[in-house]
């Protein structure tokens, strides 16, 4: 006499294997954040007519393992002059893949945005506004007005890059939007530069 009681067990095992095989063939796509090893802030002083004055100068934060991965990134102190106005541009690079992330951020401007926070902004030492071409809220180019008050030696400027955020969220187009997390998305970069005002 044949034993049919084992048939359901084999059937369930076969069905389980089939379902597992289907799941492995259709993985869920993930939108991983960018690996960023270098962030460069370049300042060009401009006069009241928006003409450049002198030569541009830069400050860099870097970590060969990736700024969000490495334990201690090297961060240069931003040193600028009170009462001056600057055009600040941002360049982002992945030296591991030899990839210029700046171009990708610009191409995907509808999905990315920089925010500028910290004591330098909170204490009105720096006033930052977006100056990207086409008037978009992105932050690769920014106007920076430095207060004419006495200099500061312990100020900080936090630079945050978000992706996949809702740019229509109320307040999200403000470059100093402290509640940027509420607009959704994830951070590709969150680093703080020391700031000295001469």
Structure description:
- The chain is 15% helix and 35% strand.
- It is α+β, with helices and mostly antiparallel strands and 198 residues long.
- The longest helix has 19 residues, at 7-25.
- It has one domain.
- A hairpin with a 4-residue loop joins strand 5 and strand 6 (99-100).
- Residues 9-31 have low confidence and may be disordered.
- It starts with 6 loop residues before the first helix and ends with a strand.
- The strands form two sheets. Strands 1, 2, 3, 5, 6, 8 and 9 form a seven-stranded antiparallel sheet that branches.
Task: Produce the secondary structure layout.
Elements: H1 7-25, E1 38-46, E2 57-62, E3 74-75, E4 78-80, E5 85-94, E6 99-100, H2 101-107, E7 112-117, H3 119-122, E8 126-130, E9 141-146, E10 155-163, E11 186-197
List keywords for this structure.
alpha+beta, 4-stranded mixed β-sheet, 198 residues, 7-stranded antiparallel β-sheet, globular
